[in-house]
Known about the structure:
Distance between the termini: 92 Å
Number of strands: 0
Radius of gyration: 36 Å
Number of helices: 2
Order of helices and strands: HH
Amino acid sequence: MTSSELIMEGFELMLLGMGSVFVFLILLVAVTTGMSSFLSRFFPEALPAPKAPKRAKPTAGAAVDQETIAVIGAAIQQHRSRRG
């Protein structure tokens, strides 16, 4: 075999390989699209459940009991006494 014959044979093999991959990918896309349309036709998605109402967030001026304020104040004083 001459070098030009080897190059032509390699080119033919390349086209055959790339062509078979291309055909496989086209078939894969077609089958996937068909399967998707089949499933969406016979098994539609369920409607989403209604969302629960959101809880109201406490506002900045919400009442905080005096015990909580005292505990927070004591924690701040303890933290400041450690630093200094």
